[in-house]
């Protein structure tokens, strides 16, 4: 028995003096301890959130669980690095690497918290609703400020990481100062890289555009699909995507059909003969609108807006709750009115009149008859 103990001791003792084996044992011990403590802490937090019926607390507990688990492990390894018995230079290198890892994990945790706050702010608003003006306002502001906060956190993390290296602390301090001092940001706003950030802040505050706005840009009709700090994505009606620099909406004119409300007027223009009774056309349009779910019940107008030498110009005005419905309603009214004219008043469609003047000629004189 003593021989077996002596043999095992002779095998285990060298292994315990091995740095690799000590590192594996220490890592496993730190992993088990941090996992256990983390699990207990989050079990308590989850139970508290459910007992208080706090959806906000539940959201933060769920979203921060994984980042904090990794952060706790890295802190545990950093705190126990001296137990490995490494040489001082090696210990400093490993400790420095763990500090960089902790900075990245803290940055990830901060970004997760920013996104959680943004989700909390917008989850009570429904952008898919028909009357979604307030929802689009909040979504636009939250998304832009979320991106600004995320970029700021990443810049601070990069600066903090640089400041851990000897000799380049001044670079990290410069980046940190340029990101944190509002006066410097405003002072160099003329630079193109920061002009986009300033434009994003201006759009978030003044809101010339919002998410899901119907706009006309460069002759293209579409909806605002995405707003970032550098560009805006417009979803064109035919499923194409128009990518526009965000500074365009500060410097260039454009049309916003849903700036104050989502409802919009649609127009249909007809060229008809002068003999066409306009009241019959009004009656037909009213019947078309009353049968359509696209009409919001607000505007039903027909007016003769212009005359030409051959026709009169009739403008039909209809209203809908949003621009896609207005487009479909315009198409429906145009098709149905043309069908009505073809059935009931085919002779009153535009036509070209030609008047021929016939001049009588004297009959030819028979031959041999004197004048």
From TrEMBL:
<dbReference type="GO" id="GO:0008381">
    <property type="term" value="F:mechanosensitive monoatomic ion channel activity"/>
</dbReference>
<dbReference type="Pfam" id="PF00924">
    <property type="entry name" value="MS_channel_2nd"/>
</dbReference>
<protein>
    <submittedName>
        <fullName>Small-conductance mechanosensitive channel</fullName>
    </submittedName>
</protein>
<dbReference type="InterPro" id="IPR010920">
    <property type="entry name" value="LSM_dom_sf"/>
</dbReference>
<keyword id="KW-1133">Transmembrane helix</keyword>
<feature type="transmembrane region" description="Helical">
    <location>
        <begin position="143"/>
        <end position="165"/>
    </location>
</feature>
<feature type="transmembrane region" description="Helical">
    <location>
        <begin position="71"/>
        <end position="91"/>
    </location>
</feature>
<dbReference type="GO" id="GO:0016020">
    <property type="term" value="C:membrane"/>
</dbReference>
<feature type="transmembrane region" description="Helical">
    <location>
        <begin position="171"/>
        <end position="190"/>
    </location>
</feature>
<feature type="transmembrane region" description="Helical">
    <location>
        <begin position="97"/>
        <end position="122"/>
    </location>
</feature>
<feature type="domain" description="Mechanosensitive ion channel MscS">
    <location>
        <begin position="193"/>
        <end position="259"/>
    </location>
</feature>
<dbReference type="InterPro" id="IPR006685">
    <property type="entry name" value="MscS_channel_2nd"/>
</dbReference>
<dbReference type="InterPro" id="IPR023408">
    <property type="entry name" value="MscS_beta-dom_sf"/>
</dbReference>
<feature type="transmembrane region" description="Helical">
    <location>
        <begin position="20"/>
        <end position="45"/>
    </location>
</feature>
<keyword id="KW-0812">Transmembrane</keyword>
<keyword id="KW-0472">Membrane</keyword>
């Amino acid at each position: 028995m003593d021989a077996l103990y002596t043999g095992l001791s002779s095998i285990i003792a060298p292994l315990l003096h091995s740095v690799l084996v000590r590192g594996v044992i220490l890592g496993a011990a730190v992993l088990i301890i941090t996992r256990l403590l983390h699990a207990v802490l989050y079990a308590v937090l989850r139970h508290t959130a459910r007992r208080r019926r706090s959806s906000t607390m539940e959201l933060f507990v769920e979203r921060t669980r994984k980042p904090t688990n990794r952060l706790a492990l890295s802190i545990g390894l950093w705190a126990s690095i001296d137990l490995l018995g490494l040489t001082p230079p090696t210990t400093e290198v490993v400790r420095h690497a763990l500090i960089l890892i902790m900075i990245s994990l803290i940055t990830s945790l901060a970004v997760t918290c920013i996104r959680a706050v943004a989700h909390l702010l917008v989850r009570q608003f429904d952008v898919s609703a028909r009357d979604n003006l307030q929802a689009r306002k909040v979504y636009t502001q939250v998304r832009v400020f979320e991106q600004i906060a995320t970029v700021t956190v990443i810049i601070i993390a990069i600066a903090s990481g640089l400041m851990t290296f000897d000799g380049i602390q001044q670079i990290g301090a410069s980046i940190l100062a340029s990101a944190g001092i509002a006066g410097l940001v405003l002072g160099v706003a003329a630079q193109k890289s920061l002009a986009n950030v300033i434009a994003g802040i201006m759009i978030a505050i003044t809101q010339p555009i919002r998410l899901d706005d119907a706009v006309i840009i460069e002759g293209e009709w579409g909806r605002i699909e995405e707003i970032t700090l550098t560009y805006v994505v417009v979803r064109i009606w035919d499923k194409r995507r128009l990518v526009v620099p965000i500074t365009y909406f500060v410097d260039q004119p454009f049309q916003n059909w849903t700036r104050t409300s989502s409802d919009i007027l649609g127009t249909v223009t007809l060229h008809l003969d002068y003999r066409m009774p306009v009241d019959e056309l009004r009656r037909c349009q009213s019947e078309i609108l009353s049968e359509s779910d696209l009409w919001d019940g607000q505007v039903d107008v027909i007016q003769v807006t212009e005359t030409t030498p051959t026709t009169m110009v009739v403008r039909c005005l209809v209203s809908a709750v949003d621009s896609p419905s207005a487009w479909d309603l315009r198409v429906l009214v145009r098709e149905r009115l043309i069908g009505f004219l073809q059935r009931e008043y085919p002779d009153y469609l535009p036509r070209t009149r030609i008047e021929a003047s016939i001049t009588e000629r004297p009959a030819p004189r028979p031959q041999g008859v004197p004048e």
